[in-house]
Amino acid sequence: MTSGRPKVRLDQQERVAVITLHGDVDLHDLTEVTGTFTQALSDISTDATLIGLSEVTFADSTFLNQLLQAFSEHTAQGRPLVLTGPLHSAVERLLQITGTDSILPLARTAQEGLRQLQAASLSTVRDQGPEVGI
């Protein structure tokens, strides 16, 4: 039985796409989660993505694969992505057992994640230097 509440919410905070997930996230949520990750990545009004996992109580390997795929796609486009907690023990254990806690960028809180994304955006702007006109 479901609560009727969507598993995934997509908001925007300044130029950051903020995805918030809750409850158990597994194979049954594949379409909804993948669609939201794709929507966030393709949103030209944002420069980075924050994925809030603090309300996720369980995650399976399907969801972990979605997170890795989202990270890979964001990296390929030069778009920062950060996962945020605090993590439920089951989610933290999944990341630790698979070793993905050392691959995926993780912040303890949403505020810390936003600071990391802001720092990454400033770094990218500095590295690009002045734009050359056509």
Keywords:
single chain; 134 residues; alpha/beta; five-stranded mixed β-sheet; globular
Map the helices and strands.
Elements: E1 8-13, E2 16-25, H1 30-42, E3 48-59, H2 61-76, E4 81-84, H3 89-98, E5 106-107, H4 110-128
Parallel strand pairs: 2-3, 3-4, 4-5
Antiparallel strand pairs: 1-2
Helix pairs in contact: 1-2
Number of strands: 5
Uncertain runs are 128-134
Q: What form results from the Cα inertia axes? A: globular
Helix and strand content put the structural class at alpha/beta
Distance from N terminus to C terminus (CA atoms, Å) equals: 58 Å
Task: Tell me about the largest β-sheet.
Answer: 5 strands, mixed
Radius of gyration: 15 Å
Average of the residue pLDDT scores: 89
Strand content: 25-35%
Strand order of the largest sheet: 1-2-3-4-5
Q: What is the ordering of alpha helices and beta strands?
A: EEHEHEHEH
Q: What is the helix tally?
A: 4
* Helical amount: 40-55%
